[in-house]
Amino acid sequence: MVKKFFGIFSLTLACTLLGVVNRFENVEAACDPTVCQPPKCFCPSVNPPGGLPLEKTPQFCLLTFDDSVQPDTLKVANSLIGKRTNPNGCPIRATYYVSIQYTDFSLVTQWYAAGNEVADHTMTHPQDPFDDEIIGCKKALNAFAGIPNGKIAGWRSPFLNWQPKTFDIIAQQGSLYDSSTTALIDDATWPYTMDYGLYNDCWRGFCNTTIHPGLFEIPMAAIIDDKGTPHLMDPHLDGTPDVVKGWLQSNFQRHAQQGKTPFGLFLHPAHLYQVPGTPLAPGATDPALNLAMLEEFLDWAIAQPDTWFVTSQQLLEWMQNPVPADQLKTYAPFSCEVPKIGKEICNGLDDNGNGQIDEGLLENCNFNTVVWNTCYGCPSENPSLANPVPSGGDRYHVPTTCDTVWWDPIANQCLCQDANCAYTDLSKPVGIVGENNTVGGSNGNTNPGQPNGNKTSSITSLNTVNTMNLIPSFIIASIFMQWIF
Ligand SMILES: [Zn+2]
Fold this sequence. Notes:
- By secondary structure, the chain is of the alpha/beta class.
- The protein has a domain at 8-22 and 58-274 and 284-333 and 470-482: Glycoside hydrolase/deacetylase (TIM Barrel).
- It has ten helices and 17 strands.
- The strands form six sheets. Strands 1, 2, 3, 12 and 13 form a five-stranded parallel β-sheet that branches. It has a four-stranded mixed β-sheet with strand order 4-5-8-7.
- The longest helix has 17 residues, at 241-257.
- The radius of gyration is 22 Å and the shape is globular.
- The structure holds zinc ion.
- Zinc ion (ZN) is lined by residues 66-67, 121, 125, 158.
- Zinc ion is lined by residues 66-67, 121, 125, 158.
- Residues 437-458 are annotated as: Disordered.
């Protein structure tokens, strides 16, 4: 969470000096666009998908938030979304990479029900997340925030500290994409599939060993300042508000000229508010001023031609069916119809305009040192690595036949009545092969009517191999120096 940025450029240079071959050219050479074809396979490219000419290509922007979802962090995220809209009049969209520890599940439900994306960012935000961290997060989000497993399709490594094993795990879990790698300028491509391995961060030497057909990589394009220094996450921490706003605008324009490759603003909301009673660090900018600057930038960005802030899943869906910019206002996946269901079902969608969740819908789960709210019933103990979905509670999990915005976890009822809102979760079962999965997926809780108390899910860690032993020590040192966020 704490950011100590040492400069990607200098690190890349250092590794080059240490003899690490930059091998992304190999992937580019190996990926033949006449063989690797959409919608299943995408070569890394700065050219718009589908052969769209630049003037017909939308400028997509990814606004992402990382770590636990709490009242203060969600307030920051929601203030950045604000009343800002995409060209079709719908609110701009964002993706939250959620870590479970310190998260209030009811806020995740509300974030998702408002049309945003929820992605996996582990249970406890460790340096080396293995199966139990990745799988446990997905299970807990499904059980206590009511997000269908099929909609938790993305992953970001804590500290951006991925290993080849990380991709093995998320591919096994049927994930749609990773977004943990770094891009500077030349490798700031459109998302691509890993049919020929990674194209980014190749100085780490894993580009030839990270081959996962169909798994998307959404590279995190850094903000490059006027001296050529990259700033990846929370760029506002690296300069005064006026200076950083200039960086953001000039980088946005660079993307617009470089094949309209997606522009990214990657933030930790925890850096954008001041905890009452804690003094500012010497020389630090008041977080409120940084937040105001980012809001000004967003106001400027949404006023640029054909600019859309979308979730990661929306971006990938568009890439698989690249509709020209002038037809996007009626493009169904970007629409924002709010369900009309006549009553509140605890997901934050309001029935009476008071902006509050009606009394009695939320349950408050108090585990002494940990307190959170949920619509899905308090379990007998706080979710943990050993048991991410403890039993208990008398509410009903979201079934595989209903999406969160239609699911009433108290009445045990899916309020979707027609084909337009029908949803079937076809995702792979979540968990380690052979374990007793009872959460979501195609072998999960398919019947509305199974209260949480019937669940018996638990997982066993398979983390018996320390793959850090397999990595040259100078690379480990570099990783720890660079990605302390
Ligand atoms: Zn994080």
